Protein: CHM4C protein
Organism: Eulacestoma nigropectus
Amino acid sequence: MSKISKFFKGGGSAASKGRGAPSPQEALARLRETEEMLSKKQEYLETRIERELAVARQHGTKNKRAALQALKRKKRYEKQLNQIDGTLSTIEFQREALENSHTNTEVLKNMGYAAQAMKKVHENMDLNKIDDLMQDITEQQDVAQEISDAISNRATFGDEFDEDELMAELEELEQEELNKGMRDVRLPSVPSTSLPSCPGKMPACHFTFLMIKPYLSTRKRTEDEDEMKKLAAWAS
């Protein structure tokens, strides 16, 4: 460990014993003051360097001794200027690191406050109660959905019968009515004598219809026209 490190370590220990460590704001203020001071020193040295160059040019070969002295002073000023540049770079780096540390500290502090607030909020929450509550909500949603489905469905009152059975029964009824109508049709008795020939050019089917027409009852005339046509066709 170098003497400078030992010096600063010892000095820092003594200072820490005498008083508490400075706050980040105080340290940053000191560093900015130091940067400002060194910047002014840089401006002063740059001015002196320009002045010494002017002196060296003025004397030139006329007064070599004075010219050389001016150049020597310029070299010393340039050396100091380079040292100040390095010091400023170190201070700038330290200031940025301190600012970042201070920012991180504030961020962590605020995150700690937020964590404590969340903990306080969750103190009165029971996970088992939350699970029960969510289960109740789900069940009630299912019930509501079932009710909505029941209301939206078309009423089926009287639709519990089999449609195929009803159609079969209807066909049986229609067949019974048809059979009944066929039984009510009475065919005329066939005459024993042969039918006379049709006079003129009268069609045989028309003549046959005229022959059997008197034997039909008045009640069945209108409803049995189709049956008569069938009979006329049969007779022809």
Q: What stands out?
A: The chain has a mean pLDDT of 76. The longest helix spans residues 64-122. Helices lie at 3-18, 24-59, 64-122, 127-152, 163-184, 204-212, 225-235. The CA atoms of residues 50 and 193 lie 165 Å apart.
